[in-house]
Amino acid sequence: MKDGPLSVVLAGGGTAGHIEPALALADAVRRMAPEARITALGTERGLETRLVPERGYPLELIPPVPLPRKPHLDLLRLPLRLRAAVRRTREVLRDTAADVVVGFGGYVALPAYLAARGELPIVVHEANAKAGLANRIGARFASRVAAAAPCGGLPGAEVIGIPLRRTITTLDRPGLRAEARAHFGLHPQAPTLLVTGGSQGARSLNTAVSGAAAELAAAGIGVLHAHGVRNTLDVTAVEPDAGAPPYVAVPYLERMDLALAAADLAICRSGAITVAELSAVGLPAVFVPLPHGNGEQALNARPVIDAGGGILVPDVELTPARVAREVIAVLTDPHRLATMAAASRVAGHPEADATLATMVLEVAR
Question: Coil, strand or helix: which one is 300?
């Protein structure tokens, strides 16, 4: 090894789906090698400008290189943009005395892979069931390739799951149940449904679940519904003196750990991070994949569904009647609920952060 501390450069900017696994890896590397120097790459456009400093890691900005998914005039500008981003990335790698580059996909990762190629070892992690362009390129000359699921589209990838925050993977759901339900104003004993469409919410989930409020209340089921900061929710009124568990609607969940502890079942999209978090803590779910895109959300949920820890409902089929039928059938059957929870946990990878950190340290050394 060289003199001085180990230096790891992370390329995972743009969206939370790239940034959060990178930061979870950074925390795991720091636990295993406290002296390690960890630097994140990003652009001024991405969420990393807020998330990375909040977690206490230095951020180096490079020019953004959006990758057009369809033929577009931006393709003509791509070579110049990419060249500038690679040049700036090489400066960062030199200034940080980098030992290894770890990429998580997206428009920050591609310049990092090209800048490190032939000079430094590269580790690639793919979170989605279908690998993106940057990771497909980076995997060709990476030392190690890791993926969240077997169908990631990267030959030879080691399936390890997605690195997650330790506040999620070490969550004691039963131990936090009373505190979590009190925090949100939920019924302390009633079976409880968590509804979340991500930070922006999901209109189809909001409409279908709120439309089933009366049926859920009649079945003795409470609801914690994060509808998104730009959305409002029209929930069928349930009289307090009827003794029904409350339907609690909030714009955003600041404490996702408490939301997971409070719930017995979730209705949600099946983004890679969402699926990973639910399965890591053993929370079964009704997954409603995004109806557009390349179908990766349905594939993300497939390992949990195949294990018996989830139910897949296409967005077009999500009606109030379908919500009531699926949710009531699970939450009023303690044996089925327990079986699904155990299956969800079996499909999870709560130690993915440590597994990837070990891989990175082995490559770097």
Answer: helix
* pLDDT on residue 236: 54
**Residue ranges in the chain modelled with pLDDT below 70:** 1-3, 66-78, 151-152, 199-200, 234-242
Asked if residue 147 is part of any domain, the answer here is yes
Q: What's residue 75's pLDDT? A: 47
* AA identity, residue 257: D
Residues 160 and 231 in one domain: no
What is the number of domains present in the chain? Answer: 2
Q: Which amino acid is at 363?
A: V
My answer on whether 277 and 311 are in the same domain is yes
Identity of the amino acid at 138:
G
Cα separation, 71 vs 228, in Å, equals 33
Distance, CA of 234 to CA of 227 (rounded, Å): 10
Q: Do 197 and 160 share a structural domain? A: no
Question: What is d(CA 121, CA 83) in angstroms, rounded to the nearest whole number?
Answer: 20
Instruction: Give this prediction's pTM.
Output: 0.88
Q: How far is CA 251 from CA 16, 57, 196, 246, 263, in A?
A: 18, 29, 10, 16, 17
Give the Cα separation of 62 and 42 in Å (integer): 6
